[in-house]
Amino acid sequence: MTDVRATESRRAGTRPAPKLNRRRAYSGGQLVPVPNGLSGAVEPVAAGTNRAAVECPEVDVLAHPGLLTLEEAELAAQRGCLVEVTTRPGHSLANGHVVQVCRQAGAPMVVDSDTHAPSDMANLAFAQTVAAGASMTPDEIALATGAHPERLLARVLARRQQSA
After folding, report:
1. Which residues pair with residue 54 across a beta bridge?
2. Average pLDDT across the chain, whole number
């Protein structure tokens, strides 16, 4: 599975939506996460990246959304765009905030490792611990580490079949 990251969304003044469909088609990508990060604290990004991502039908996961707004989380909920609760050091600083806002908006969450190297991989027990530390309930943890990733995988596999 190709992981297409919308890096152009990190440049000031650009939005990911117009280019993602072409990028996915060109690269053979099946999954489109859009990373945002903690603006200024860990990984600077252009203002508006979260909103552009959750409005774009090509985006599957809003990765490390940082200081997600309620409006952005509500848009994610409307689209079924998963919002990442990350196990990655640094980006995880906002996990508690992300969980609180997603809970209020009814936005679906997924616990993800934001893996950059094999050593970044998180096992299920660690993912569940990070989720609990971010104030997720046992039911939210079960969804974010089970049902939601399974639904995403089903969507990715369906795309793969359609493009074959």
Report:
1. none
2. 80
Contact between 149 and 124 (Cβ < 8 Å): no
CA distance 116 to 71: 29
In the chain, the amino acid numbered 144 is A
159 vs 154: CA distance, rounded Å = 9
Counting Cβ atoms within 10 Å, is residue 33 exposed (0-12), middle (13-18) or buried (19+)?
buried
Nearest to 43 by CA among 75, 89, 109: 89
Q: What is the DSSP letter of 62?
A: E
3 has which bridge partners? 31
Q: Counting beta carbons within 10 angstroms of the beta carbon of residue 65, is it exposed (0 to 12), middle (13 to 18) or buried (19 or more)?
A: buried
Beta bridge partners of 31: 3
pLDDT tens digits, 10-46: 333 344 444 555 455 444 555 556 665 454 456 666 7
Q: Where are the domains of the chain?
A: 7-163
Q: State how far the Cα of 136 lies from the Cα of 149, in Å rounded to an integer.
A: 16
CATH superfamily of this structure's domain 7-163: Metal-dependent hydrolases (3.20.20.140)
